[in-house]
Write a structure and sequence with these properties.
single chain; mainly beta; five-stranded antiparallel β-sheet; four-stranded antiparallel β-sheet; 5 helices; 11% helix; 42% strand; WD40_rpt; F-box and WD repeat domain containing 4; WD repeat; F-box_dom; WD40/YVTN_repeat-like_dom_sf
Length: 387
């Protein structure tokens, strides 16, 4: 019996023992083998071991429209740092831009506006196809949901833009700039320089609750289960800058960490799962917290080698972390299975030019927002082909 004549379940079992090189060589044997080997089912196990293939730790696939074999090819470029750099957008005045990515649309805040750019082969078009406005000052932060774009500005206002009807609802409550936002399933959490975190709902313009934090709030994140949220503060008072709050009771469930030095503010927070939390900030560390432990504590950490503040982090949901620092606008890629930096990309020649304020990832691109420009790294260029 020939190999391709084996029952499919047996053939899947045989192929599960092969690595990516062996699979690719096997696909060159004949047309029928090629057709079988190129199925996503065959490559799924291999893809889960690579960086940024879209297969998350829980098994979900966030890029189902891209063949897994192609994603494994691109993943080798992520690992080796092979990419093409570009500056698709520039602006004249220094800003604190923020980014969000939704499929083939990139959202970028510039001063008081948020502009939506279509992406062609990963590159934003020169002119935005839609502009969201309404703030009296600069946009500090914004988030996307399936139905809304929610922005916080230096004017203390939160604007809820409907992405379908174009209507805008204003939420007033903060008296200083809104530094951070998060929203899931109709719930909105905001944090401000006015030392409070506030809770809102999409179906009402009235404030639901206010939590005094006695320190400037730099970052917030809702747990995917919506049972709790995390606040990150400036760490200028005698409190832990990281605190977990119960959404319903509005009680502090716990403080995370006790060894933060004064001024070690938390600038970005990202939930990997309901039990895993990543943080970064002025103390130059990326930290992974396991919320299942008692007490809840840091289980891994990665240190920025140049002792520079880390402004933002993004993960692929599996093995990779990307971070943006204040040193030469450096972007670093980390493999969670290692403690050292895997790759780094210096976006600026001036050590004090600008921090990397925000990062966003797709399967083949990384976008970084600095004070005067948007940078893109294209990992689909010069691919290392599997042979």
């Amino acid at each position: 019996m020939l190999l391709h004549q084996l029952p499919e379940d047996v053939l899947y079992h045989v192929l599960s023992y092969l690595d990516y090189r062996s699979l690719s060589r096997l696909s060159q044997v004949c047309r029928s083998i090629w057709s079988f080997v190129n199925r996503d089912t065959v490559w799924r196990r291999v893809a889960k071991e690579f960086l940024n293939t879209g297969i998350r730790r829980d098994g979900t696939d966030i890029y189902p429209h891209i063949p897994l074999k192609e994603r494994v090819k691109i993943a080798q470029n992520w690992y080796d740092g092979v990419c093409k750099r570009a500056i698709p957008l520039r602006w004249k005045t220094k800003l604190l831009p923020w980014l969000q990515l939704d499929g083939d649309v990139l959202f970028l805040s510039q001063a008081a506006d948020i502009r939506a750019y279509r992406l062609r082969q990963g590159r934003p078009q020169r002119n935005p196809f839609k502009i969201y406005s309404g703030h009296d000052g600069d946009v500090c932060h914004f988030v996307l949901t399936d139905s809304h774009l929610i922005s916080g500005g230096s004017d203390g206002k939160i604007l809820v833009h409907s992405r379908t009807t174009g209507t805008v609802m204003e939420l007033s409550g903060h008296n200083q700039e809104v530094n951070c936002l998060d929203s899931k399933d109709g719930l909105i959490i905001s944090g401000s320089r006015d030392r409070t975190a506030r809770i809102w709902t999409l179906n009402s313009s009235c404030l639901r609750d206010t939590i005094p934090l006695h320190d400037r709030v730099w970052s917030v994140a809702l747990n995917p289960t919506l049972s709790s949220f995390v606040t990150g503060t400036a760490c200028c008072e005698n409190f832990s800058p990281l605190r977990i709050w119960d959404v319903e009771r509005l009680e502090c469930v716990c403080n995370l960490g006790s060894e933060f030095r004064r001024g070690a503010g938390v600038l970005d927070i990202a939930f990997e799962s309901p039990f895993q939390l990543f943080t970064c900030g002025y103390d130059t560390f990326i930290r992974l917290w396991d919320l299942r432990l008692s007490p809840r504590k840091c289980v891994m950490e990665w240190e920025e080698p140049h002792d520079s503040a880390l402004y933002c982090i993004q993960t692929d949901g599996n093995h990779m972390i990307a971070s943006g620092s204040s040193y030469y606008g450096v972007v670093r890629l980390w493999d969670k299975r290692q403690t050292k930096c895997l790759q780094f990309f210096q976006l600026s020649s001036d050590p004090v030019s600008s921090p990397v304020y925000c990062l966003r990832l797709s399967s083949a691109h990384l976008y970084a927002a600095l004070a005067t420009a948007l940078y893109s790294l294209d990992f689909k260029q010069s691919p290392i082909y599997i042979r």
